[in-house]
Automatic annotation (TrEMBL):
Catalytic activity: ATP + protein L-histidine = ADP + protein N-phospho-L-histidine
EC id: 2.7.13.3
Keywords of this entry: 4Fe-4S, ATP-binding, Coiled coil, Cytoplasm, Iron, Iron-sulfur, Kinase, Membrane, Metal-binding, Nucleotide-binding, Phosphoprotein, Transferase, Transmembrane, Transmembrane helix, Two-component regulatory system
Highest taxon listed in the record's lineage: Bacteria
Record localization: Cytoplasm
Identification of the protein by name: Oxygen sensor histidine kinase NreB
Physiological role: Member of the two-component regulatory system NreB/NreC involved in the control of dissimilatory nitrate/nitrite reduction in response to oxygen. NreB functions as a direct oxygen sensor histidine kinase which is autophosphorylated, in the absence of oxygen, probably at the conserved histidine residue, and transfers its phosphate group probably to a conserved aspartate residue of NreC. NreB/NreC activates the expression of the nitrate (narGHJI) and nitrite (nir) reductase operons, as well as the putative nitrate transporter gene narT.
GO cellular component: cytoplasm; membrane
Length: 433
Protein backbone atom coordinates (compact mmCIF):
# COMPACT_ATOMS: atom_id res chain seq x y z
CA UNK A 1 0.00 0.00 0.00
CA UNK A 2 2.74 2.49 1.03
CA UNK A 3 4.86 1.72 -2.02
CA UNK A 4 1.82 2.06 -4.30
CA UNK A 5 0.88 5.39 -2.70
CA UNK A 6 4.41 6.73 -3.19
CA UNK A 7 4.57 5.58 -6.82
CA UNK A 8 5.40 8.65 -8.92
CA UNK A 9 2.90 9.63 -11.60
CA UNK A 10 5.49 9.20 -14.30
CA UNK A 11 5.46 5.46 -13.70
CA UNK A 12 1.77 5.51 -14.69
CA UNK A 13 1.47 8.36 -17.13
CA UNK A 14 4.68 7.74 -19.02
CA UNK A 15 4.98 4.95 -21.53
CA UNK A 16 5.66 1.63 -19.81
CA UNK A 17 9.28 0.57 -19.61
CA UNK A 18 8.38 -2.44 -21.74
CA UNK A 19 7.00 -0.21 -24.49
CA UNK A 20 9.20 1.15 -27.28
CA UNK A 21 11.12 4.35 -26.62
CA UNK A 22 9.35 7.67 -26.97
CA UNK A 23 9.28 9.20 -30.45
CA UNK A 24 12.15 11.58 -31.03
CA UNK A 25 10.16 14.88 -30.83
CA UNK A 26 8.71 13.96 -27.43
CA UNK A 27 12.08 12.76 -26.14
CA UNK A 28 13.67 16.03 -27.25
CA UNK A 29 10.92 18.01 -25.51
CA UNK A 30 11.40 16.02 -22.30
CA UNK A 31 15.14 16.61 -22.27
CA UNK A 32 14.67 20.30 -23.06
CA UNK A 33 12.21 20.78 -20.18
CA UNK A 34 14.49 19.00 -17.72
CA UNK A 35 17.52 20.94 -18.90
CA UNK A 36 15.59 24.21 -18.61
CA UNK A 37 14.52 23.28 -15.07
CA UNK A 38 18.11 22.47 -14.07
CA UNK A 39 19.46 25.70 -15.56
CA UNK A 40 16.72 27.75 -13.88
CA UNK A 41 17.46 26.18 -10.50
CA UNK A 42 21.19 26.83 -10.87
CA UNK A 43 20.68 30.47 -11.90
CA UNK A 44 18.19 31.18 -9.10
CA UNK A 45 20.45 29.47 -6.57
CA UNK A 46 23.41 31.64 -7.60
CA UNK A 47 21.27 34.79 -7.48
CA UNK A 48 19.94 33.90 -4.02
CA UNK A 49 23.45 33.04 -2.86
CA UNK A 50 24.74 36.44 -4.02
CA UNK A 51 21.84 38.39 -2.49
CA UNK A 52 21.99 36.58 0.84
CA UNK A 53 25.76 36.74 1.25
CA UNK A 54 26.65 38.03 4.71
CA UNK A 55 23.07 38.05 6.02
CA UNK A 56 23.42 34.87 8.12
CA UNK A 57 26.26 32.49 8.91
CA UNK A 58 24.18 29.48 7.83
CA UNK A 59 23.22 30.59 4.33
CA UNK A 60 26.36 29.13 2.70
CA UNK A 61 25.76 25.73 4.29
CA UNK A 62 22.10 25.74 3.27
CA UNK A 63 22.89 26.94 -0.27
CA UNK A 64 25.55 24.24 -0.69
CA UNK A 65 23.13 21.61 0.61
CA UNK A 66 20.49 22.76 -1.87
CA UNK A 67 22.94 22.52 -4.76
CA UNK A 68 24.30 19.10 -3.77
CA UNK A 69 20.87 17.58 -3.11
CA UNK A 70 19.41 18.93 -6.36
CA UNK A 71 22.39 17.65 -8.36
CA UNK A 72 22.10 14.24 -6.68
CA UNK A 73 18.38 14.09 -7.45
CA UNK A 74 18.98 15.02 -11.11
CA UNK A 75 21.70 12.37 -11.41
CA UNK A 76 19.53 9.64 -9.85
CA UNK A 77 16.61 10.52 -12.13
CA UNK A 78 18.86 10.47 -15.19
CA UNK A 79 20.32 7.05 -14.33
CA UNK A 80 16.86 5.69 -13.56
CA UNK A 81 15.52 6.92 -16.91
CA UNK A 82 18.42 5.32 -18.79
CA UNK A 83 17.93 2.05 -16.91
CA UNK A 84 14.21 2.01 -17.74
CA UNK A 85 14.97 2.68 -21.40
CA UNK A 86 17.28 -0.33 -21.40
CA UNK A 87 14.67 -2.71 -19.94
CA UNK A 88 12.41 -3.34 -16.97
CA UNK A 89 14.32 -3.34 -13.65
CA UNK A 90 14.29 -6.51 -11.63
CA UNK A 91 11.86 -6.93 -8.74
CA UNK A 92 14.70 -6.75 -6.19
CA UNK A 93 15.77 -3.27 -7.30
CA UNK A 94 12.41 -1.68 -8.13
CA UNK A 95 11.62 -0.44 -4.60
CA UNK A 96 15.08 1.09 -3.89
CA UNK A 97 15.04 2.79 -7.27
CA UNK A 98 11.66 4.31 -6.36
CA UNK A 99 12.49 5.35 -2.79
CA UNK A 100 15.88 6.94 -3.46
CA UNK A 101 14.53 9.85 -5.57
CA UNK A 102 11.74 10.39 -3.03
CA UNK A 103 14.24 10.48 -0.18
CA UNK A 104 16.41 13.00 -2.03
CA UNK A 105 13.34 15.10 -2.83
CA UNK A 106 12.32 15.10 0.83
CA UNK A 107 15.80 16.24 1.91
CA UNK A 108 15.85 18.88 -0.83
CA UNK A 109 12.49 20.30 0.29
CA UNK A 110 13.60 20.32 3.94
CA UNK A 111 16.72 22.25 2.92
CA UNK A 112 14.59 24.68 0.92
CA UNK A 113 12.16 25.24 3.82
CA UNK A 114 15.19 25.89 6.02
CA UNK A 115 16.63 28.34 3.48
CA UNK A 116 13.45 30.41 3.21
CA UNK A 117 13.36 30.40 7.00
CA UNK A 118 16.75 32.11 6.91
CA UNK A 119 16.08 34.55 4.06
CA UNK A 120 13.28 35.12 1.50
CA UNK A 121 15.91 35.36 -1.24
CA UNK A 122 15.70 31.56 -1.60
CA UNK A 123 11.91 31.70 -2.10
CA UNK A 124 12.22 31.90 -5.89
CA UNK A 125 13.79 28.45 -5.96
CA UNK A 126 10.26 27.19 -5.37
CA UNK A 127 9.41 27.49 -9.08
CA UNK A 128 11.81 24.78 -10.40
CA UNK A 129 11.07 22.73 -7.28
CA UNK A 130 7.38 22.76 -8.19
CA UNK A 131 8.23 20.75 -11.33
CA UNK A 132 10.33 18.27 -9.37
CA UNK A 133 7.46 17.72 -6.92
CA UNK A 134 4.93 17.26 -9.73
CA UNK A 135 7.27 14.90 -11.56
CA UNK A 136 8.00 12.61 -8.62
CA UNK A 137 4.79 12.62 -6.56
CA UNK A 138 1.17 11.75 -7.32
CA UNK A 139 -1.06 14.75 -7.89
CA UNK A 140 -2.96 14.05 -4.67
CA UNK A 141 0.28 14.63 -2.77
CA UNK A 142 1.99 17.14 -5.05
CA UNK A 143 -0.71 19.84 -5.17
CA UNK A 144 -1.12 20.19 -1.36
CA UNK A 145 2.66 20.22 -0.98
CA UNK A 146 2.96 22.99 -3.56
CA UNK A 147 0.29 24.93 -1.69
CA UNK A 148 2.36 24.55 1.47
CA UNK A 149 5.43 25.82 -0.39
CA UNK A 150 3.50 28.89 -1.58
CA UNK A 151 2.44 29.61 2.00
CA UNK A 152 6.08 29.24 3.05
CA UNK A 153 7.03 31.92 0.53
CA UNK A 154 4.34 34.23 1.91
CA UNK A 155 5.58 33.57 5.44
CA UNK A 156 9.22 34.22 4.50
CA UNK A 157 8.38 37.66 3.13
CA UNK A 158 5.99 38.46 5.98
CA UNK A 159 8.62 37.49 8.55
CA UNK A 160 10.90 40.20 7.17
CA UNK A 161 8.39 42.94 6.29
CA UNK A 162 5.36 42.00 8.36
CA UNK A 163 2.05 40.79 7.01
CA UNK A 164 0.78 44.30 6.53
CA UNK A 165 3.64 45.05 4.13
CA UNK A 166 3.19 41.93 1.99
CA UNK A 167 2.40 43.33 -1.46
CA UNK A 168 0.22 42.02 -4.25
CA UNK A 169 3.27 41.01 -6.27
CA UNK A 170 4.48 38.86 -3.39
CA UNK A 171 1.17 36.98 -3.39
CA UNK A 172 0.49 36.84 -7.10
CA UNK A 173 3.99 35.80 -8.21
CA UNK A 174 4.30 32.51 -6.28
CA UNK A 175 0.62 31.71 -6.80
CA UNK A 176 0.78 32.18 -10.57
CA UNK A 177 4.05 30.23 -10.67
CA UNK A 178 2.44 27.34 -8.81
CA UNK A 179 -0.62 27.35 -11.07
CA UNK A 180 1.52 27.51 -14.22
CA UNK A 181 3.64 24.63 -12.97
CA UNK A 182 0.59 22.50 -12.23
CA UNK A 183 -0.95 23.35 -15.62
CA UNK A 184 2.26 22.57 -17.52
CA UNK A 185 2.73 19.31 -15.66
CA UNK A 186 -0.86 18.31 -16.38
CA UNK A 187 -0.50 19.19 -20.07
CA UNK A 188 2.75 17.24 -20.28
CA UNK A 189 1.18 14.20 -18.65
CA UNK A 190 -1.71 14.40 -21.13
CA UNK A 191 0.84 14.51 -23.94
CA UNK A 192 2.58 11.45 -22.53
CA UNK A 193 -0.73 9.64 -22.17
CA UNK A 194 -1.65 10.44 -25.77
CA UNK A 195 1.74 9.18 -26.87
CA UNK A 196 1.21 5.96 -24.91
CA UNK A 197 -2.18 5.43 -26.56
CA UNK A 198 -0.66 6.11 -29.96
CA UNK A 199 2.15 3.67 -29.21
CA UNK A 200 -0.40 1.01 -28.24
CA UNK A 201 -2.11 1.52 -31.59
CA UNK A 202 1.23 1.20 -33.35
CA UNK A 203 1.94 -2.01 -31.43
CA UNK A 204 -1.50 -3.37 -32.32
CA UNK A 205 -0.92 -2.54 -35.98
CA UNK A 206 2.48 -4.22 -35.84
CA UNK A 207 0.92 -7.30 -34.24
CA UNK A 208 -1.83 -7.32 -36.87
CA UNK A 209 0.79 -7.02 -39.60
CA UNK A 210 2.72 -9.92 -38.08
CA UNK A 211 -0.49 -11.98 -37.97
CA UNK A 212 -1.20 -11.15 -41.61
CA UNK A 213 2.33 -12.13 -42.59
CA UNK A 214 1.97 -15.39 -40.68
CA UNK A 215 -1.37 -16.03 -42.38
CA UNK A 216 0.17 -15.23 -45.75
CA UNK A 217 3.01 -17.66 -45.08
CA UNK A 218 0.51 -20.30 -43.98
CA UNK A 219 -1.52 -19.80 -47.15
CA UNK A 220 1.63 -19.96 -49.24
CA UNK A 221 2.60 -23.20 -47.53
CA UNK A 222 -0.90 -24.57 -48.14
CA UNK A 223 -0.61 -23.63 -51.81
CA UNK A 224 2.77 -25.35 -52.01
CA UNK A 225 1.34 -28.47 -50.41
CA UNK A 226 -1.68 -28.39 -52.72
CA UNK A 227 0.64 -28.01 -55.69
CA UNK A 228 2.69 -30.96 -54.51
CA UNK A 229 -0.46 -33.07 -54.15
CA UNK A 230 -1.66 -32.02 -57.60
CA UNK A 231 1.70 -32.91 -59.09
CA UNK A 232 1.67 -36.26 -57.31
CA UNK A 233 -1.81 -36.98 -58.68
CA UNK A 234 -0.72 -35.95 -62.18
CA UNK A 235 2.29 -38.25 -62.05
CA UNK A 236 0.09 -41.06 -60.76
CA UNK A 237 -2.30 -40.65 -63.67
CA UNK A 238 0.47 -40.39 -66.24
CA UNK A 239 2.28 -43.42 -64.89
CA UNK A 240 -0.93 -45.44 -64.87
CA UNK A 241 -1.89 -44.44 -68.41
CA UNK A 242 1.60 -44.99 -69.87
CA UNK A 243 4.01 -47.18 -67.94
CA UNK A 244 1.51 -49.40 -66.16
CA UNK A 245 -0.48 -50.01 -69.32
CA UNK A 246 2.69 -50.62 -71.29
CA UNK A 247 3.86 -53.19 -68.76
CA UNK A 248 0.46 -54.87 -68.92
CA UNK A 249 0.75 -55.15 -72.69
CA UNK A 250 4.25 -56.60 -72.41
CA UNK A 251 3.01 -59.18 -69.90
CA UNK A 252 0.15 -60.20 -72.20
CA UNK A 253 2.50 -60.50 -75.18
CA UNK A 254 4.98 -62.54 -73.17
CA UNK A 255 2.26 -64.90 -71.96
CA UNK A 256 0.94 -65.35 -75.48
CA UNK A 257 4.43 -66.15 -76.75
CA UNK A 258 5.02 -68.67 -73.98
CA UNK A 259 2.02 -70.78 -74.89
CA UNK A 260 2.89 -74.44 -75.66
CA UNK A 261 3.42 -75.18 -79.33
CA UNK A 262 4.48 -71.65 -80.29
CA UNK A 263 6.69 -71.78 -83.39
CA UNK A 264 9.76 -69.67 -84.10
CA UNK A 265 7.90 -67.21 -86.32
CA UNK A 266 5.32 -66.58 -83.62
CA UNK A 267 8.05 -66.07 -81.03
CA UNK A 268 9.87 -63.60 -83.28
CA UNK A 269 6.64 -61.68 -83.83
CA UNK A 270 5.92 -61.58 -80.09
CA UNK A 271 9.47 -60.50 -79.26
CA UNK A 272 9.27 -57.73 -81.86
CA UNK A 273 5.98 -56.53 -80.38
CA UNK A 274 7.46 -56.65 -76.87
CA UNK A 275 10.49 -54.70 -78.05
CA UNK A 276 8.26 -52.09 -79.70
CA UNK A 277 6.03 -51.76 -76.63
CA UNK A 278 9.01 -51.56 -74.27
CA UNK A 279 10.64 -48.87 -76.43
CA UNK A 280 7.42 -46.87 -76.52
CA UNK A 281 6.97 -47.22 -72.75
CA UNK A 282 10.56 -46.08 -72.18
CA UNK A 283 9.97 -43.02 -74.35
CA UNK A 284 6.75 -42.24 -72.51
CA UNK A 285 8.53 -42.65 -69.16
CA UNK A 286 11.13 -40.08 -70.17
CA UNK A 287 8.38 -37.72 -71.30
CA UNK A 288 6.54 -38.12 -67.98
CA UNK A 289 9.73 -37.42 -66.04
CA UNK A 290 10.43 -34.33 -68.12
CA UNK A 291 6.73 -33.32 -68.09
CA UNK A 292 6.73 -33.15 -71.87
CA UNK A 293 4.14 -33.82 -74.53
CA UNK A 294 3.38 -37.55 -74.93
CA UNK A 295 5.53 -39.21 -77.54
CA UNK A 296 2.44 -40.22 -79.51
CA UNK A 297 1.50 -36.52 -79.94
CA UNK A 298 4.97 -35.29 -80.89
CA UNK A 299 4.82 -33.57 -84.24
CA UNK A 300 1.14 -34.38 -84.89
CA UNK A 301 -2.41 -33.54 -83.89
CA UNK A 302 -4.81 -35.59 -81.78
CA UNK A 303 -6.61 -37.48 -84.59
CA UNK A 304 -3.32 -38.71 -86.04
CA UNK A 305 -2.10 -39.73 -82.58
CA UNK A 306 -5.32 -41.64 -81.90
CA UNK A 307 -5.05 -43.34 -85.30
CA UNK A 308 -1.53 -44.55 -84.49
CA UNK A 309 -2.63 -45.68 -81.02
CA UNK A 310 -5.53 -47.73 -82.38
CA UNK A 311 -3.31 -49.30 -85.05
CA UNK A 312 -0.71 -50.25 -82.43
CA UNK A 313 -3.30 -51.78 -80.09
CA UNK A 314 -4.86 -53.74 -82.93
CA UNK A 315 -1.49 -55.10 -84.05
CA UNK A 316 -0.24 -55.99 -80.56
CA UNK A 317 -3.43 -57.43 -79.07
CA UNK A 318 -5.21 -58.92 -82.05
CA UNK A 319 -8.36 -56.94 -81.27
CA UNK A 320 -9.97 -55.34 -84.32
CA UNK A 321 -9.65 -51.74 -83.18
CA UNK A 322 -10.65 -48.85 -85.44
CA UNK A 323 -10.62 -45.06 -85.23
CA UNK A 324 -13.42 -42.83 -86.50
CA UNK A 325 -13.41 -39.04 -86.89
CA UNK A 326 -16.85 -37.42 -86.84
CA UNK A 327 -16.69 -34.20 -88.82
CA UNK A 328 -13.67 -32.09 -89.74
CA UNK A 329 -10.75 -32.01 -87.36
CA UNK A 330 -10.17 -28.81 -85.41
CA UNK A 331 -7.09 -27.79 -83.46
CA UNK A 332 -7.42 -28.14 -79.69
CA UNK A 333 -5.40 -26.79 -76.77
CA UNK A 334 -2.41 -29.02 -76.12
CA UNK A 335 -3.59 -29.75 -72.58
CA UNK A 336 -6.88 -31.11 -73.92
CA UNK A 337 -5.16 -33.20 -76.56
CA UNK A 338 -2.84 -34.73 -73.94
CA UNK A 339 -5.75 -35.48 -71.60
CA UNK A 340 -7.85 -37.12 -74.32
CA UNK A 341 -4.92 -39.16 -75.60
CA UNK A 342 -4.13 -40.38 -72.08
CA UNK A 343 -7.78 -41.28 -71.62
CA UNK A 344 -7.82 -43.27 -74.87
CA UNK A 345 -4.61 -45.06 -73.86
CA UNK A 346 -6.09 -46.05 -70.51
CA UNK A 347 -9.41 -47.13 -71.97
CA UNK A 348 -7.80 -49.29 -74.69
CA UNK A 349 -5.43 -50.80 -72.12
CA UNK A 350 -8.47 -51.86 -70.09
CA UNK A 351 -10.04 -53.31 -73.23
CA UNK A 352 -6.89 -55.31 -73.95
CA UNK A 353 -6.30 -56.52 -70.39
CA UNK A 354 -9.77 -57.13 -68.98
CA UNK A 355 -12.61 -57.06 -71.50
CA UNK A 356 -11.95 -60.12 -73.67
CA UNK A 357 -13.28 -58.03 -76.55
CA UNK A 358 -12.83 -58.86 -80.21
CA UNK A 359 -13.63 -55.39 -81.46
CA UNK A 360 -13.14 -51.83 -80.22
CA UNK A 361 -14.00 -48.44 -81.73
CA UNK A 362 -12.47 -45.09 -80.82
CA UNK A 363 -14.36 -42.06 -82.16
CA UNK A 364 -13.56 -38.35 -81.87
CA UNK A 365 -15.93 -35.48 -82.66
CA UNK A 366 -15.29 -31.75 -82.32
CA UNK A 367 -18.23 -29.36 -82.49
CA UNK A 368 -19.44 -26.00 -81.23
CA UNK A 369 -20.40 -27.53 -77.90
CA UNK A 370 -16.92 -28.97 -77.32
CA UNK A 371 -15.01 -32.15 -78.04
CA UNK A 372 -16.16 -35.72 -77.37
CA UNK A 373 -14.16 -38.94 -77.26
CA UNK A 374 -15.86 -42.37 -77.20
CA UNK A 375 -14.24 -45.76 -76.63
CA UNK A 376 -16.61 -48.72 -77.16
CA UNK A 377 -15.86 -52.45 -77.02
CA UNK A 378 -17.86 -55.69 -77.27
CA UNK A 379 -16.22 -57.36 -74.28
CA UNK A 380 -17.62 -59.02 -71.17
CA UNK A 381 -18.49 -55.71 -69.51
CA UNK A 382 -18.54 -55.00 -65.77
CA UNK A 383 -20.54 -53.34 -63.04
CA UNK A 384 -19.79 -49.58 -63.36
CA UNK A 385 -20.88 -49.02 -59.76
CA UNK A 386 -18.08 -51.26 -58.50
CA UNK A 387 -15.08 -49.06 -59.25
CA UNK A 388 -13.04 -49.65 -56.10
CA UNK A 389 -9.28 -49.79 -56.29
CA UNK A 390 -8.29 -53.41 -55.71
CA UNK A 391 -5.50 -54.85 -53.59
CA UNK A 392 -3.41 -55.77 -56.64
CA UNK A 393 -3.28 -52.08 -57.65
CA UNK A 394 -5.83 -52.32 -60.45
CA UNK A 395 -9.10 -50.45 -60.56
CA UNK A 396 -7.40 -47.03 -60.66
CA UNK A 397 -7.89 -46.32 -64.37
CA UNK A 398 -11.48 -45.06 -64.43
CA UNK A 399 -10.86 -42.81 -61.43
CA UNK A 400 -7.81 -41.38 -63.20
CA UNK A 401 -9.92 -40.69 -66.29
CA UNK A 402 -12.55 -38.85 -64.23
CA UNK A 403 -9.87 -36.74 -62.56
CA UNK A 404 -8.38 -35.77 -65.91
CA UNK A 405 -11.74 -34.62 -67.22
CA UNK A 406 -12.65 -32.79 -63.99
CA UNK A 407 -9.39 -30.81 -64.06
CA UNK A 408 -10.37 -29.43 -67.48
CA UNK A 409 -14.01 -28.83 -66.61
CA UNK A 410 -15.25 -31.89 -68.48
CA UNK A 411 -17.01 -35.06 -67.50
CA UNK A 412 -16.70 -38.81 -68.03
CA UNK A 413 -19.60 -41.21 -68.59
CA UNK A 414 -19.25 -44.99 -68.27
CA UNK A 415 -21.93 -47.37 -69.54
CA UNK A 416 -21.48 -51.10 -69.10
CA UNK A 417 -23.24 -54.28 -68.11
CA UNK A 418 -21.95 -57.79 -67.66
CA UNK A 419 -21.92 -59.54 -71.03
CA UNK A 420 -22.89 -56.34 -72.91
CA UNK A 421 -19.56 -54.60 -73.48
CA UNK A 422 -18.46 -51.14 -72.31
CA UNK A 423 -18.83 -47.58 -73.61
CA UNK A 424 -16.71 -44.74 -72.20
CA UNK A 425 -17.55 -41.17 -73.25
CA UNK A 426 -15.46 -38.12 -72.37
CA UNK A 427 -16.73 -34.60 -73.05
CA UNK A 428 -14.86 -31.29 -72.78
CA UNK A 429 -17.17 -28.31 -73.33
CA UNK A 430 -16.47 -25.26 -75.51
CA UNK A 431 -12.71 -25.51 -76.00
CA UNK A 432 -10.69 -23.27 -78.31
CA UNK A 433 -7.04 -23.62 -79.27
Amino acid sequence: MWAAALRPPTSVDRVSSTAPAEPRPLAVLTRALLLGQHVLFAVLLLVAWGRAAGETPWFEVVAAALGVLYAALALVEHRSARSEAGGRPSAGTALPRLLLPLALLALLLLAWFASVGLTPDFAWLAFPLFFAVLRLLPSAWAVPLIGLMVLAVFWAHARVTGWAEVGLATVVGPTVGALVSIGMAHAYQMLLHENAVRQELVDELAAAKADLEATHESLAESRRQAGALDERARLSRDIHDTLAQGFSSIILLARAASQPGADAARLRTALGAIDQQASQSLTEARAVIADLTPETLSGSDLPAALERLVTSVSRLSGIRATFEMDGPARPLPRTHEVALLRLAQGALANVTAHSGATRAVVSLSVGDDGVRLDVVDDGVGFDPHDMREREDGTGYGLRSMRERMALLGGQLTVESARGAGTAIAAHLPGVTP
